[in-house]
Amino acid sequence: MFIDSHCHIDFPDLAAREDEVLANMQAQQVSHALCVSVNIEHWPRVTGMAERHANVFASLGVHPDYEDVTEPDVAQLVEMSTHPRVVAIGETGLDYFRLTGDLEWQRKRFRTHIRAARECGKPLIIHTRSSAEDTLTIMREERAHEVGGVMHCFTETLEVAEAAIDMGFCISFSGIVTFKNAQQLRDVAKAIPLASMLIETDSPYLAPVPYRGKMNEPAYVPHVAAELAKVRGMTVEEVGRVTSDNFFRLFHDAARLAGREEVAA
C-alpha cells in the first residue's frame, strides 16, 4: 500500500471528480492521502474532503505564495487546529522564486506557523524554493525540531536535506524525481536514510512519468515509489511499506485516526 503525503484534491479540477479520484486511489493501492491547505479562505474545502473520506487527512496553513489573504495569528491557528481531521500545520515556508521584493511578510508568516505548530504539537509541512538558507535559519531560530515535519516536494541539495533531517524532518519526493533531468534529486533520494523518506504527488501538479504534462492525482504516487525503488535497489512494495510507516510515525494524529498507533509508537 502507498500513502500520498501531500496533495490538493480540494482544488476545483480534482474536486469535480472527487468520487473518481478516490476510486482511482483504491484501485492503485493508495490507502491514504493528506489534503494540504494553502489558505484560510479555502480551508473548509480541505476539511470537508477529510470529513467525507476516512482515508483522507487535512492540514491547516497559508502557503508562502499567497498574498492578500487572511493572515492568521498563532492563537487562531492553534484554535483551528483542534479540528478532528487536522494532522499537520502547513503548508508553510518560503518561496523566493515566484515572488520578489521585500518578502519579510513571508518570513513572519513562516515563524507564525512554526510557533503554532509547537503550541499545538502537530508536525509542519514546509515548502521551500530558492530560499533554503533562510528556511533552515528560521527553522532553527523558531525551534522547529520540537515538532518535526516534512520538507515537501523536495528539490534542494543533499546538504539541505541532511540539515532538515537533523531537525527531525522527513524528505518527501514528488513526481519530479521521475523526470529525466532530475539526477541530482535521485542522488539525494539514494543517500538519505530510508526512515526519513516520504512520497507525494503534490497533485494536481507535477505528474510523474509516464503522465508528465497531465493532471496529477494521488493514484499516481506509486510511480514515485517505483522510481525510488529503482534508485535504492528495493522493491516497489518495500518503498510503499517503509514510506507508509514513516508517514504514520510523523503524523501521529493520522496514525490515531487510522488505527495505526503501533507504528507511531
Please specify the SSE layout and strand pairing.
Layout: E1 2-7, H1 12-15, H2 18-27, E2 30-35, H3 43-52, E3 56-60, H4 74-80, E4 86-95, H5 104-120, E5 124-129, H6 132-141, E6 149-151, H7 158-166, E7 169-173, H8 183-191, E8 197-199, H9 221-232, H10 236-250, H11 252-258, H12 261-264
Parallel strand pairs: 1-2, 2-3, 3-4, 4-5, 5-6, 6-7, 7-8
Helix pairs in contact: 4-5, 5-6, 9-10, 10-11
Task: Provide a descriptive summary of the structure in words.
- This protein has about 260 residues and is α/β, with parallel strands linked by helices.
- It has a single domain, classed as TIM Barrel (Alpha-Beta Barrel).
- The chain has twelve helices and eight strands.
- The protein has helices at about 10-15, 20-25, 45-50, 75-80, 105-120, 130-140, 160-165, 185-190, 220-230, 235-250, 250-260, 260-265, and strands at about 1-5, 30-35, 55-60, 85-95, 125-130, 150, 170-175, 195-200.
- α5 (about 105-120) crosses α6 and α10 crosses α11 (about 250-260).
- The two termini are about 20 Å apart.
Helix and strand sequence: EHHEHEHEHEHEHEHEHHHH
CATH architecture: Alpha-Beta Barrel
Portion of residues in beta strands equals 15-25%
Please count the beta strands (DSSP E, at least 2 residues each).
Answer: 8
Mean pLDDT: 97
Global geometry = globular
Continuous helix count: 12
Unreliable residue stretches: none
Q: How are the strands of the largest sheet arranged? A: 1-2-3-4-5-6-7-8
Task: Say which CATH homologous superfamily is assigned.
Answer: Metal-dependent hydrolases
Main beta-sheet annotation: 8 strands, parallel
What Rg do the Cα atoms give? 17 Å
Q: What name is given to the CATH topology?
A: TIM Barrel
Structural domain count: 1
Instruction: Identify the CATH class.
Output: Alpha Beta
Share of helical residues: 40-55%
The separation of the N and C termini measures 20 Å
* Structural class by SSE content: alpha/beta
